[in-house]
Amino acid sequence: MNIEVVKVPVEEKAILKNLLKMYCYEWSQYNKFDVNDKGEYEFEYHISDYWDKEKHYPFS
Prior knowledge:
Blueprint: H1 13-31, H2 49-52
């Protein structure tokens, strides 16, 4: 099996955000992550950090 890890360009931020939502939902039965009153996971407020902050990198 070959696995390729690639840096996500900023133009694909919405795609990564959607994938992370599904990931959080699937794992919530184990890690007890829950959504807030708006139906959002906490990471959604900080997703831009992967492109804007030093030493933060988005990979998929």
